[in-house]
Each structure stands twice: as structure tokens, then as C-alpha cells.
Amino acid sequence: MLIQKRGLSQFKWFPKAASTVFELGDAVAFNLTGGIVRATSSSTNILGMIKRAVTASDTDYATTALVPVQVFVPEDEIEIDASTTVTAAMIGTYRDLSNSSTLNVGAVGGNLTFRVLGIGSTTSKAVVSLVRNSLSS
User: Fold this and answer.
1) Quick check: 6 and 82 in contact, CB under 8 A?
2) How many CA atoms lie within 13 A of 7 on its CB side?
3) 109 vs 118, which has greater pLDDT?
4) Contact predicate 95/109, CB 8 Å
5) N or C, fewer C-beta in 10 Å, the chain?
């Protein structure tokens, strides 16, 4: 789960991809048709995080209903779960996601999605900033 620690991000509503499950706080990106999908390790432009869980039993699950998204800007500070222990040596490096809720700190990122700003509330979390988002790229 992503948690905003500091910044001026804003809430916007976007259509979700139909028949897609989301957990509250998942990182999201646009798909090719403009719908919101869960971000993956190959996502290059993260938009922000979804502010509503979507389950397969929801009445709007199979639709492209609008969902709230907290859109991040590069100045925002975000805490995110890490794939392994975060160390001081990682500060200032660029990392990608392992999945929609976990930062891959095991290898320097090829997509250059997030910059590590510090160790989070525990060493299994990182404080990061977004390098760019889907709306500013």
C-alpha cells in the first residue's frame, strides 16, 4: 500500500478498467484505452494511487465506473512497502515497482519510476518520490 507522507497531490476521478480488482492504495497507471489499471513492474508512468478498493463482488466490477485516484506530483513523498530491507545506501537511487503495492529495492530500476528519499517507518518501507506521472509525461 502506498501512503502519502507529504505533498500537494490532488484527487481526480478516472474510469477504471472493467473486471479489474484493486486494493485500496494500489499504485495505478493508464491502460491503452485510458482506463485505470494496477501498476506493474513494467509500468513507466505511474499516475498515483487508487482511493477505493474494487472487488469482484462489487456491482460496478464489470464496468468502467469512475474511481477516485490520488494523483501524485514529483514533489510528493510517498511511503511504500519494499521488497527487502531498505538501507541508507539506496537513498538517491532510482527503483521500480515489484507490483502495485511494493517497491523493488533489490535492483536499480530500469524504468526510473521512483527515487528513494529515505527509509520509511520501518526498514521494510521506503520513502520515495515519483520521477514523473502519467499526466505530466
Assistant:
1) no
2) 21
3) 118
4) yes
5) C
